[in-house]
Amino acid sequence: MKVRFYGVRGSVPTPGSRTVRYGGNTVCVDVRLADGTVLILDGGTGIRELGAELVKQELHRAPLHVLLTHLHWDHILGLPFFAPVYRKESVIRIHPLGTDLQQIALRDRKLFDGVHFPIRAADLPAHFDFIESSMEDQRIGSAVIRRIALNHPGGAQGYRIDDADGKSLCYLTDNELSPPGPVTTSLDALARFSEEADLVIHDAQYLDEDMPTKHGWGHSTIDDVLRLGSKASAKHLVLFHHDPERDDDALDHIGHRANEWLREKGSSTRASVAREGWSLDL
Ligand SMILES: [Zn+2]
Ligand SMILES: [Zn+2]
Predict the structure, then answer these.
(1) Which numbered ligand comes closest to the C-alpha of 26?
(2) How far is the centre of ligand 1, averaged over its atoms, from the C-alpha of 255 (Å)?
(3) For residue 155, how far is its CA from the centre of ligand 2 (angstroms)?
(4) What fold, for 2-281?
(5) Rounded to an integer, what distance in angstroms lies between the CA atom of residue 102 and that of residue 96?
(6) Which terminus, N or C, of the chain has the lesser number of Cβ atoms within 10 Å?
(7) Helix H segments across 85-238?
(8) How far is the centre of ligand 1, averaged over its atoms, from the C-alpha of 221 (Å)?
């Protein structure tokens, strides 16, 4: 399995000199399965560059599987600028969302209603397949995909991707591991879901000092994410969905501190801070 980060920022794009090393595009991750199937996790502004790359490599002709966590702007803002939607030979499979409300909005393609964007859904040349809603395990290409409901206002879903070559990836954003109200899925349940995954990508937007003002906003503190990664015995934990206020130096510091924390706890998990343009071969 190959993974490439095209966008790692949460909430809103953050271009500029203070974010140039980690990147300012909002969330989008490209996953290539062992059999070459293309999975796209979220459609934030990072998907624009991925789309250009897919067209250049002529991969837009193969079905492209889009797996969204939810429909907040930072996860869909790049979709109108995803080059394959303007190619009649593209086949884009949109996989189901976690709630009925989100699923209706997705099927209605409200981004392309002529109000939010000048081009309407009916005028897009690509062929779109909307896969029926299901929380059951699903096979895509060489992998089995599992979903889990996350703790996020309005709902979000996470994914576990187990590929035929034995490699596994968990994608868990946007998720608050210690929410103030009712818990949709506990930290323990998420640790079981992510158990011994090769790569766990998790929302790590906040620091302890950002709370309590941001408690309940649907994002986790870095310490909670380290607890999850350690409990799951994840091989590699990637801190993701960076706060717009976090500049490159702050993210360097977070990466350093995260690995110190894991070492102090005797954890075998290692941590990295997600960076735009970073590729991994699992
Ligand atoms: Zn988000
Ligand atoms: Zn969100």
Answers:
(1) 1
(2) 20
(3) 8
(4) Metallo-beta-lactamase; Chain A (3.60.15)
(5) 9
(6) C
(7) 100-108, 187-193, 222-231
(8) 14
pLDDT tens-digit map of 120-162? 999 999 999 999 866 678 999 999 999 999 999 999 999 999 9
**261, two tokens:** 């924390």
Starting from the CA of residue 71, give the closest ligand: 2
| DSSP label of 95 | P
The pLDDT tens digits of the residues spanning 227-276 come to 999 999 999 999 999 999 999 999 999 999 999 999 999 999 999 999 99
Shortest-distance ligand to the CA of residue 153: 2
Q: Which percentage of the chain shows pLDDT scores above 90?
A: 95
Q: Global pTM? A: 0.97
Contact yes or no for 55/83 (Cβ under 8 A): yes
56's CB contacts (< 8 A; 6+ apart) are none
Q: What are the DSSP E strand ranges found in 57-167?
A: 64-67, 91-94, 127-130, 138-140, 143-150, 156-163
**From ligand 1's centre to the CA of 162, what distance in Å?**
24
